[in-house]
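Recall that a protein's primary structure is simply its ordered list of amino acids. Everything else, from secondary elements to tertiary packing, is in principle encoded there. The following example makes that idea concrete.
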Amino acid sequence: CDWSQTCALPICEQKSNHAVAYRSGMCVAIAALAGTPAAAHARQALLSAKRIALLNKFKFMGDTLVATPLFRQLRQYCPEAEIDIFTSSSAGAALEDYPYVSRVVAIKQAGGRRLRHTRDLVQTLREGNYDVAFLLNRSLQCAIATQFAGIPTRIGYRADCRSPFLTLPIPYAFDRNEISCHLDMLRALGLPAEDT
């Protein structure tokens, strides 16, 4: 989709009948979500947030690197907010001096101790006193952790039974570019985002 710079409503280009229908459907779904009271509330919470948590996948550096367009555009909307990213230690090292995040929180792999890992994550999130959390992963564990941590606005993908734990569940399409999927989080809030 080609998203307008002046509004969050998409203008979809036509390529093939199947692709057009699919892209149009996603564009319509995201645009419809952006017009809901839940999105308006989440947008207001984001634009007034002092502390934002970004929970990325905790395994591979590439998962964090494809999220950097979201980090950059989020910083444009929230220039004064503290934006912390929770990611793997290897990705954290790559983002050490990255200007669009305030702090990198390295998360160790859960291994066989998932319950302990979740408890530690809840505690770290609670201590961070975050106003908003973006869940860039599709982890049920992270969705539950952000709710138990008391983060009032939780934005993430509605895949894998996570919707009850999110205040703004975003549609996710497994066959779309991951960068576009991440930027759909801003679009669903009614905020324009460029796929660059």
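The radius of gyration is 16 Å. The CA atoms of residues 66 and 179 lie 6 Å apart.
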